[in-house]
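Summary of Year 1 activities. Much of the first year was spent building the evaluation harness for sequence design. The harness presents a backbone, in tokenized form, and records the residue chosen at every position. We chose the following record to illustrate the format because it has been used consistently in internal testing since the harness was completed.
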């Protein structure tokens, strides 16, 4: 299974094509739209989320609520394109007209300058329109297909916020998965700690008042996976490595951890590794889950727990210094759009990119042409792993 996305931030639409989804899997526009609308929520989002109403049009690969086995094409139209058609349209500009809103002053922390140098563009709108986090809507659409597959296999996944601007949510290991999903969805900042939530919102409001931005830490948890997904035999077949790559590829993400992550460097081995236990009911499991559900690049059967670090959004209402690429004069960087904090939305994006990697791994390891046969093989393997 793989996907491609196309489209620019202020262009006509975002397009996602997902290939390799089994035939006969239930899939509706509602499955995709629920995820897209979740991505738009969150305290601290900017005005763009009030302009766009992200809804999908499935343009291929699905018939009467079931996948065909052919590529699935999905389109999310940009409602604001009508105000950008002369700037972002595909037709040549008439010789007597001047292009509006060209960008020659690169923004620190963005892809503007590096992309302009790489592709030779003097108008950096050609860079920023594609490098924008708006593209994550297309990635969420792909992840929603994967989440639907996982849900039909009995695998649950949720993303939430652990930290914003140094305010750390209380860890709640006792929470059941359904309660995590519920609390995350009800929280304006997608955290499981109500006390921390208010402090986080206050910090976001203060950052907005100051013309600044703040970052944080997202966590994704996956339950219902058997031991043995992934492989230890080659570096590029390790599932935790694939997930780390996917998370790191999200706009503004600068680090990934599994389980206790970097904390393992500050503990003794006896305090890090998860002791193996066994029961007739559940089979092999671990007494703890410090390693986040992975050993040797493979799942252990414990919940997969992965964290991602998001830097503050670099587009600020009090812009940082930059240098114009034409005049070489010092300027304050331009403002395209700005969320004072997008960590709650990023938790949704991260949830979906993790879902895609896990679903892809399942399809790599089990018969995948027809969904009923996939489910039968997956369930059989889970039972074999339990009885091992």
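For this record, the design step produced the sequence shown next.
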């Amino acid at each position: 299974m793989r996907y491609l996305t196309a489209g620019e931030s202020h262009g006509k639409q975002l397009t996602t094509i997902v290939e390799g989804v089994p035939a006969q899997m239930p899939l509706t526009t509602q499955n995709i739209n629920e995820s897209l609308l979740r991505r738009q929520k969150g305290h601290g989002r900017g005005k763009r989320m009030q302009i766009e109403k992200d809804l999908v049009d499935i343009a291929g690969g699905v018939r009467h609520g079931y996948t065909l086995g052919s590529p699935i094409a999905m389109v999310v139209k940009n409602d604001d394109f009508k105000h950008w058609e002369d700037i972002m349209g595909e037709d040549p500009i008439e010789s007597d007209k001047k292009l509006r809103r060209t960008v020659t002053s690169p923004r620190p922390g963005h892809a503007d300058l590096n992309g302009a140098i790489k592709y030779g563009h003097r108008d950096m709108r050609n860079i920023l329109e594609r490098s924008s986090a708006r593209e994550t809507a297309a990635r969420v659409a792909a992840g929603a297909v994967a989440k639907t597959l996982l849900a039909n296999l009995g695998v649950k996944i949720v993303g939430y916020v652990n930290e914003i601007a140094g305010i750390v949510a209380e860890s709640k290991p006792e929470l059941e998965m359904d309660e995590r999903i519920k609390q995350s969805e009800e929280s304006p900042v997608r955290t499981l700690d109500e006390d921390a939530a208010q402090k986080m919102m206050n910090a976001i409001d203060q950052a907005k008042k100051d013309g600044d931005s703040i970052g944080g830490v997202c966590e994704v948890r996956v339950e219902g996976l058997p031991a043995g997904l992934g492989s230890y035999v080659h570096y590029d077949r390790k599932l935790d490595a694939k997930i780390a790559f996917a998370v790191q590829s999200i706009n503004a993400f600068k680090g990934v951890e599994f389980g206790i992550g970097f904390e393992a460097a500050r503990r003794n081995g006896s305090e890090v590794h998860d002791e193996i236990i066994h029961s007739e009911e559940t089979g092999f499991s671990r007494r703890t889950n410090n390693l986040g559900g992975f050993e040797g690049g493979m799942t252990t059967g414990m919940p997969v727990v992965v964290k991602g670090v998001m830097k503050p959004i670099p587009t600020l209402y009090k812009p940082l210094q930059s240098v114009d690429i034409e005049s070489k004069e010092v300027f304050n960087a331009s403002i395209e759009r700005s969320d004072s904090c997008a960590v709650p939305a990023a938790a949704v994006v991260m949830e979906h990119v993790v879902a895609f990697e896990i679903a892809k791994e399942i399809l790599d390891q089990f018969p995948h042409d027809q969904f009923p046969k996939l489910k039968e093989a997956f369930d059989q393997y889970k039972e074999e792993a339990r009885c091992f």
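The first helix runs from residue 29 to 39. Quantitative recovery figures across the full test set are reported in Table 2.
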